[in-house]
């Protein structure tokens, strides 16, 4: 058979979202690939320029639909720096706990999609089932299951409901047990190793060249984690380890993510203990009123015209479940951000696709792309 | 002995004779003509066979959906009929009502002929395989050979459908399917040779009766493994379902088919699954016979043969569902490597073992190990 | 728990068992869920049923609704028309601009009461409106089923929202505190012309027009004895809706902090 291009996407079982991987194949071997993105572009950065600071949070949840809390956190950190707001400590711990739960939920979603890509149907349901429990937990204190709208400039919307920490601990125990089950279904299976070992290799040098971050970088032996390297929120006050693997293949990424989930549970347990011991306010008491919590008469012209608030620049970098996400925000004294810029880790991870797909089989594409953990919402924004 | 054909013949002859009694002589003589009755009886026989096999196939889908659901911690079909029993009939009705669209570049004849031929060639198997005593229309001395020949038509039609639907995914899936099926025909046939060596016959009924005392799975364990693996590949089920690997090839070779054409493929896949389970039961698990330690009352009630046969069939299919629920899909090259480099030598070894068993006459010794289905 | 700092990959622990362990794991789950899978039969069973609350579910060994506190859910809004003061804050705070203030029946025909009408085709269920509502009359309920056959049915008029309110569904119990140092509405006295517009339109009637002597004469001239009126805002009643600012013809009201 001569070489031919096939489109994997935009509507394709492999893509997990709207994007297109054009693949040039020679028989069953991939000769060339070309990623096309932008199908899900919603102009979130531009819309943010016309939204009040707290209203941008509603966009952040939709930015990445599997890691809404992490993106809220990213934006809020940038906004707080630009607006010169200090946050009560309890809110920091709540944010850390939320982000780690979100990391587990996102990794569970990844696990479900990944095993389905290699043809394992049962763990897909297990992953989705256990993720749903985390969503239940999120719903119990934020009111939303995927779109939380929970963080606010200066803190978080509300404190935990009574009995929350016990439920969260129970969930942690449940999840730790399930992780063993997941490993048995995948790692103990010879077919899994046949499918996933030594494919999709992306070594550290290539990762650096393309700006690939997150589990993909750590699977290549680079111990890079923003939570350790540039601690934000309360990450410098909790203990955790950064998992590293050397092989840079699909199995290594699997191992990294499974270990990250365990480390997240470890962080969550510490924050739950702290939250039990330290009640307090969850939102800064001295917020400028126009930040809108709880009342936000934005859109009411004449209200903000006479505001004279110090300008500022905000930059934040967080370790999102998929990698390093960055945000940059300019506050020019208006009621809206003057400019918001987000850097999505998945965009860089996909952009390097030629480095880790070419040369393998067509049947290797789903596991490889599955191991990248693609969330198209944040790629296109 | 009550046979299915005689039942069908009676079904048509008794009413016709009753009608003929009220008719004038020349007409009644023409009506109760033996040739006509034989032809009509054969038609009724086919109808019964078709109905039974289709209902069984659809129940097989239901069985898979429910059982897979339990493996996945969910319930499967629930709402149409009791425990979703009628769900697949509803799905079939939905597909029947749907429009079938042919892509612009698709070849007309191939596009419509391939699904039909695939379906028909799968259904023909039911006329060959005996489910119980008196099930087949007549004695077929080479029924095993015929069954395997008909069973191996499928890659041809799959490749035809893939090629004629003018789709790159279909073509890739069709190529994979053809390669896979051809690769696994060889070990299947060699494994069957082991059975033939042991039973000394190509007639499935004889093979079953040879197993009345000792089921063949114990002496031919190696051949059973090869045969089951080959059947998994032939049925295109996980872990060997690469031709329709939905993660990379959308739906593989039936991507472009919709409506009833898709339903044909879907049904024929399950027909082939059912046939594969039939073959395993017939060749290795004693068919409709039961070992001697089973009380006679359990094997002597009416239709006991069919009951035990179907029970075994569904158990075998349950194992296939179990495998599907817990294993990932392998890759094409790995599949072919396993097929040619592991399965073929294993099946050759199993032939050697079978010959050894026959020569040393140690079959009763193996069969006497308690609990392995000996008589 | 394996040590995370190691870079070694756990070996394929049992090459002899091949795929036996996954098969056994799946079989274990099969046994667990043979009679009672974790799923609920949705239209007939609902997660908000008390029987799926955590205690029961965990006792049965099923991971259903381990954190579900359904009162918290942000679903369809409920509007108590009687307590609505038409302050517009919900419409102002809506990021999707899906809330319109429309007239409701009853009251003064010249100045009809306005209540929010919500277009659920646009609503993103962020809950900012119910957070902003100073009277607690616009709340979010636990109702989550909203399928309609016509697009126009997605628009919930105040009356329909009131019907939701009358169903007495569980509502979000968490109410937010007002911040300590709220901005206040301040007056620029020399500009005010005493037109009464702010007091007339104030939804809480917290503005009273007080008589004052307005010194408008130029220096050197005799002060006129004319009586002017000037708004005085009762701060504890004010909900900070800004209606007075937007109706002021001279832009003499503004936000600020009283020194």
Give a verbal description of the structure.
The complex is a heterotrimer of chains A (381), B (375) and C (259). Chain A has 381 residues and is of the alpha+beta class. Chain A has one domain: Cytochrome-c3 Hydrogenase, chain B (Orthogonal Bundle). Helices cover 46% and strands 12% of the residues of chain A. Chain A contains 15 helices and eight strands. In chain A, a hairpin with a 7-residue loop joins strand 7 and strand 8. The radius of gyration of chain A is 21 Å and the shape is globular. Chain A starts with a strand and ends with a helix. About 2% of the residues of chain A have low confidence. With 375 residues, chain B is an all-alpha fold. Chain B has one domain. Helix content of chain B is 69%, strand content 0%. In chain B, helix 8 packs antiparallel against helix 10. The longest helix of chain B is centred in the first third of the chain and has 38 residues. Chain C has 259 residues and is an alpha+beta fold. Chain C folds into three domains: 49 residues, no CATH class; 95 residues, Alpha-Beta Plaits; 73 residues, 2-Layer Sandwich (Alpha-Beta Plaits). Chain C contains seven helices and nine strands. In chain C, the strands form four sheets. Chain C has a three-stranded antiparallel sheet. In chain C, strands 1-4 form a two-stranded antiparallel sheet. At the B-C interface, helix 3 and helix 14 of B face helix 1 of C.
Distance between the termini of chain C: 60 Å
Poorly predicted segments of chain C: 1-7
Helix content bin of chain A:
40-55%
Pairing-aware structural class of the strands and helices of chain C?
A: alpha+beta
| Beta-strand fraction estimate of chain A | 5-15%
Sum up the overall morphology of chain A in one term. globular
Counting H and I runs of at least 4 residues, what is the number of helices of chain C?
7
Sheet with the most strands, sense and barrel status of chain C:
3 strands, antiparallel
Number of beta-strand segments of chain A: 8
Strand neighbour order, sheet with most strands of chain C: 2-3-5
Main sheet properties of chain A: 3 strands, antiparallel
Helical residues, percent of chain C: 10-25%
Mean pLDDT over the residues of chain A: 84
**Helical stretch count of chain A?**
15
Query: Could you say how many structural domains of chain A there are in total?
Result: 1
Looking at how many chains there are and whether they match, the oligomeric state comes to heterotrimer
The residue ranges of chain A in which pLDDT falls below 50 over 5 or more consecutive positions are: 298-306
The percentage of residues in β strands of chain C lies in 15-25%
């Amino acid at each position: 058979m001569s070489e031919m291009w096939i489109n994997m996407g935009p509507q394709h079982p492999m893509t997990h979202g709207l994007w297109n991987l054009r693949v040039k194949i020679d028989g069953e071997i991939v000769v060339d690939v070309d990623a096309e993105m932008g199908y899900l572009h919603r102009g979130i950065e531009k819309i943010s320029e016309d939204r009040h600071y707290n209203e941008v949070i509603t966009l952040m949840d939709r930015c990445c639909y599997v890691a809404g809390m992490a993106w809220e956190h990213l934006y809020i950190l940038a906004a707080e720096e630009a607006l010169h707001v200090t946050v009560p400590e309890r809110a920091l711990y709540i944010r850390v706990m939320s982000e780690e739960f979100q990391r587990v939920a996102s990794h569970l979603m990844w696990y479900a999609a990944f095993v389905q890509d290699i043809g394992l149907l049962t763990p897909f349901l297990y992953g989705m089932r256990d993720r749903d429990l985390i969503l239940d937990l999120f719903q119990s204190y934020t009111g939303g299951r995927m779109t939380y709208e929970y963080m606010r400039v200066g803190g978080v919307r509300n404190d935990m409901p009574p009995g929350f920490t016990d439920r969260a601990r129970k969930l942690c125990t449940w999840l730790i047990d399930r992780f063993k089950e997941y490993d048995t279904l995948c790692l103990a299976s010879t077919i899994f190793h046949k499918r996933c070992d030594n494919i999709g290799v992306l070594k550290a040098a290539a990762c650096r060249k393309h700006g690939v971050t997150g589990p993909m970088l750590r699977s290549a032996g680079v111990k890079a984690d923003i939570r350790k390297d540039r601690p934000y929120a309360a990450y410098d006050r909790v203990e955790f380890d950064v998992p590293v693997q050397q092989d840079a293949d699909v199995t290594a990424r699997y191992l990294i993510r499974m270990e990250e989930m365990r480390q997240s549970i470890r962080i969550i347990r510490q924050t739950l203990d702290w939250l039990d011991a330290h009640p307090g306010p969850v939102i800064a008491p001295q917020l400028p009123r126009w930040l809108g919590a709880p009342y936000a008469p934005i859109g009411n012209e004449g209200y903000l015209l006479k505001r004279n608030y110090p300008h500022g620049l905000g930059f934040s970098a967080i370790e999102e479940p998929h990698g390093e996400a960055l945000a940059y925000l300019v506050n020019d004294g208006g009621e809206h951000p003057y400019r918001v810029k987000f850097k999505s880790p998945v965009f860089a991870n996909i952009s390097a696709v030629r480095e880790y797909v070419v040369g393998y089989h067509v049947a290797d594409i789903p596991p490889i792309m599955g191991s990248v953990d693609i969330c198209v919402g944040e790629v296109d924004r | 002995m009550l046979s299915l054909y005689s039942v069908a013949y009676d079904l048509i002859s008794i009413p016709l004779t009753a009608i003929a009694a009220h008719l004038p002589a020349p007409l009644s003589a023409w009506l109760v003509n033996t040739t006509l009755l034989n032809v009509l009886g054969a038609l009724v026989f086919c109808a019964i066979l078709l109905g039974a096999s289709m209902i069984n196939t659809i129940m097989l889908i239901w069985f898979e959906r429910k059982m897979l659901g339990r493996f996945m911690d969910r319930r499967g079909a629930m709402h149409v009929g009791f425990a979703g029993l009628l769900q697949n009939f509803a799905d079939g009705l939905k597909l029947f009502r749907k429009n079938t669209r042919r892509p612009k570049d698709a070849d007309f004849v191939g596009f419509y002929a391939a699904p039909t031929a695939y379906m028909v060639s799968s259904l023909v198997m039911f006329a060959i395989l005996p489910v119980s005593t008196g099930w087949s229309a007549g004695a077929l001395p080479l029924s095993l050979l015929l069954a395997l020949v008909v069973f191996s038509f499928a890659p041809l039609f799959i490749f035809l459908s893939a090629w004629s639907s003018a789709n790159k995914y279909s073509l890739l899936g069709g190529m994979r399917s053809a390669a896979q099926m051809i690769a696994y025909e060889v070990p299947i046939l060699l494994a069957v040779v082991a059975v033939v060596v042991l039973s000394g016959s190509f007639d499935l009924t004889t093979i079953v009766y040879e197993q009345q005392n000792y089921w063949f799975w114990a002496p031919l364990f190696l051949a059973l493994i090869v045969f089951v693996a080959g059947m998994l590949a032939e049925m295109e089920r996980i872990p060997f379902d690469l031709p329709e690997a939905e993660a990379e090839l959308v739906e593989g070779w039936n991507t472009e088919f919709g409506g009833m054409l898709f339903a044909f493929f879907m049904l024929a896949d399950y027909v082939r699954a059912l046939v594969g389970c039939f073959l395993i039961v017939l060749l290795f698990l004693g068919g409709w016979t039961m070992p001697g330690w089973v009380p006679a009352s359990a094997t002597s009630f009416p239709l006991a043969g069919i009951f035990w046969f179907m029970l075994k069939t569904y158990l075998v299919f349950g194992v296939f569902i179990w495998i599907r629920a817990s294993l990932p899909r392998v890759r094409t090259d790995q599949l072919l490597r396993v097929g040619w480099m592991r399965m073929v030598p294993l099946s050759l070894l199993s032939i050697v073992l079978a010959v050894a068993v026959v020569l040393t006459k140690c079959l009763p010794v193996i069969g006497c190990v308690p609990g392995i289905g000996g008589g | 728990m394996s040590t995370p700092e190691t870079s070694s990959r756990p070996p394929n622990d049992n090459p002899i068992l091949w795929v036996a362990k996954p098969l056994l794991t799946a079989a274990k789950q099969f046994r667990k869920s043979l009679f009672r899978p974790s799923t609920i039969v949705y239209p007939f069973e609902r997660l908000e049923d008390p029987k799926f609350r955590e205690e029961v579910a965990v006792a049965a060994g099923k991971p259903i609704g381990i954190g579900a506190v359904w009162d918290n859910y942000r679903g369809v809004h409920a509007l108590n028309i009687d307590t609505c003061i038409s302050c517009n804050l919900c419409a102002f705070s809506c990021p999707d601009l899906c809330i319109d203030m429309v007239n409701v029946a009853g009251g003064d025909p010249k100045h009809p009461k306005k209540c929010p009408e919500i277009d659920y085709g646009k609503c993103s269920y962020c809950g900012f409106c119910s957070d902003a509502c100073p009277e607690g009359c616009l709340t979010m309920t636990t109702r989550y089923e909203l399928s309609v056959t016509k697009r126009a049915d997605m628009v919930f008029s105040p009356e329909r929202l009131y019907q939701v309110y009358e169903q007495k569904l569980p509502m979000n119990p968490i109410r937010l505190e007002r911040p300590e140092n709220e901005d206040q509405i301040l007056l620029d006295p020399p500009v005010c012309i005493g037109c009464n517009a702010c007091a007339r339109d104030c939804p809480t009637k917290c503005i009273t027009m007080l008589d004052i002597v307005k010194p408008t004469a130029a220096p050197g001239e005799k002060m006129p004895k004319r009586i002017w009126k000037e708004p005085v805002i009762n701060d504890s009643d004010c909900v900070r809706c800004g209606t007075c600012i937007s109706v002021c013809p001279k832009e003499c009201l503004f936000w600020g902090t009283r020194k």
